[in-house]
Amino acid sequence: MSPGRLGHGTWLCPGGSTQPGRGLPLWTNRYDGPTNGEDNAAAIAVDGSGNVFVTGSSSNGANEDIATIAYSSAGVQLWARRYNGPGNVNDGASAIAVDHSGNVFVRGYSYDGTNSIWVTIKYSSSVPPPRLDFQTLNNQLVLNWANAAFNL
Fold it and tell me: Other CB atoms closer than 10 Å to residue 60's CB: what's the count?
């Protein structure tokens, strides 16, 4: 799988796998940063549960930040994080990896105002813990959760 630039301000992220021998997409998701500016995907990784992680650069209006997005195996966005380096200028990602514990590692560059420096970012827990809500209805316990990646 290779992420790519679909157009100004949009990432196209083919996810998961395709049907064997048919090449039909199972889901498609897009990312458009907060300013609807330039967004470019650079790397993609998949964990053992089929969650998809995409990283690249995204405009913040004045320059570019590192943007990293996590999707469930069904294509639902789990989280999105942005990194704006110490120089508050251009930052970009070049690689992403996920370890066996679900930690996400992004490698890239950041400009500190004088020099371009390497940056490594670690995001812990690939899937945030679910928010559980309990209530009773007709003497039965009803459980609701907000995390699309969490299943009972």
Answer: 18
